[in-house]
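Entry 14. Structure prediction run on the chain below.
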Amino acid sequence: MTSRGGLDEVKAEARPRGMRAAARRVVAHASALARLERELARAELKRKGGTVGAGAALAVAAGLFLLYAIGFGLAAAAAALALVVDWWLALLIVFGALLLLVVVLVLVSRSLVREGTPLKPEQAIEEARLTKQVLRGTRAG
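Output returned:
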């Protein structure tokens, strides 16, 4: 049994043969494939959820800074009307800086939310579609 043909015969005898064994192997492979696709979908949703969460947190921060900006703006207006001296200009500069910060945070937040949406596992869906095509015997792509 040193020839290549003899070794192949031993391997073939060790593996169960027949339709039932083949069907079991197909079911086992399909089950493993479905499990892997679920894991891919879970990982993709986790990544996108984190991105959307970061965008939402920045939007909340922008809202908080907008509240402070309005407060400083009103304080500057009140100071300007009451005293008409130099210190109101300092308050107005703070108001402008806070407003600029709000604009930057809103733009970054919007970018992160757009990057993470829609919240569907696109890679997993595409992989499932390609797998289905291969199992049906059609060409992928």
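The radius of gyration is 32 Å.
Filed with the rest of this week's runs.
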